Amino acid sequence: MVTKLIYFMRHGETESNAKNIRQGPEGHLTEKGREQALVTSQRFSRHKGRPQAIISSPYERTKETAEIIAGELQMKKVEYSDFLAERRNPSEIVGHWGEEADVKHIVDQMDKSYHVDDLRVSDEENFVDLKERARKLLAYIKRRKEKRIIMVTHGIFLKMIASYMTYGEKLTASQYNTLSYFNPVTNASMAVCSYTHHWFKKDEWKIVVWNDLD
Hints:
38% of the residues lie in helices and 18% in strands. The protein starts with a strand and ends with a strand. Helix 2 packs across helix 3, helix 5 packs across helix 6 and helix 6 crosses helix 7. It is an alpha/beta fold. Helix 3 links the parallel strand 2 and strand 3. Strands 3-2-4-1-5-6 form a six-stranded mixed sheet, sandwiched between helices. The protein is built from seven helices and six strands, in the order βααβαβααβααββ.
């Protein structure tokens, strides 16, 4: 039996987060966001066993967060993976305030209503796309040799990871939207997950801690 611990972390606050503006890959951390990342990185001293790798989404806000963590833990290298990127928003809402009527209508369709799995509103990554990426990410984690890994990612995709761990291939868009609604992900919070490879039964994923800031 082999068990790995994965420390998923959402990036620190960005200017767009603070202003409720829909983001793309661009966008730097605020001073508050940098402090959040530093505080979270200091918590790793409480955990038994030193993280052996840090892997980040290639977006600006996650790169900055990962670099702060790596510096605090004296880890020489940050790896980057597109598997950890945030869901691609519809291009027409990127850079727009979340309370605009057109933006709210699109977001409500995608995130706040029950819909068929393959709904596609515009040019966004839809539920089917995200579910497939979560599946690939978990397969990638299985292949990694490290037993303790920090992964810096984003709120929406982190919810998809947790949903896929919970339901597997049976996951539907309605189940995902329900889980997403009731399980917030705060900036710089941590979700600790375990993966156990069993020799004589099905491999097991567990969510040990969710949205932890303490």
